[in-house]
Amino acid sequence: MASKANPFAFLQQVRSETSKVTWPSRRETVISTVMVLVMVVFAALFFFAADQLIGWLISLVLNLGN
Questions:
Q1: Distance between CA atoms of 32 and 56, rounded to whole angstroms?
Q2: Cα–Cα distance for residue pair 19/33, rounded to 1 Å
Q3: What are the residue ranges of helices labelled H in 1-66?
Q4: What predicted TM-score, i.e. pTM, was given to this entire model?
Q5: What is the pLDDT of residues 8-62, one digit of tens each?
Q6: Taking a C-beta distance cutoff of 8 angstroms, is the pair 32, 24 a contact?
Q7: Strand, coil or helix: 2
């Protein structure tokens, strides 16, 4: 059976728990964001190149039948 909690007590517990969290500094956040953006660009370029290569190979194979 679920116990009924007082909303005020719940909010106090939430505040207490969030004070225990180790929050990243602004510098850490900026560095992590830049790293993610760089990896996204690398992944986009890789998948674009792979798509172009696979498309070229498929068109090569399909044109051999003519």
A1: 36
A2: 24
A3: 7-19, 26-64
A4: 0.63
A5: 888 999 999 998 989 899 999 999 999 999 999 999 999 999 999 999 999 999 9
A6: yes
A7: coil
- The dihedrals phi and psi of 43, each to the nearest 5 degrees, come to -65, -40
Residue 24: partners with Cβ closer than 8 Å, 6 or more residues away: 32
Report the C-alpha gap between 30 and 48 in whole angstroms. 27
Q: Tokens 């090569």, residue? A: 60
Query: Cα(23)–Cα(57) distance, rounded to whole angstroms?
Result: 49
pLDDT at 4 exceeding the cut of 80:
no
The pLDDT value given to residue 43 = 98
Q: Are residues 13 and 21 in contact, defined by beta-carbon separation less than 8 angstroms?
A: no
Q: Can you read off the two tokens belonging to residue 62?
A: 């399909």
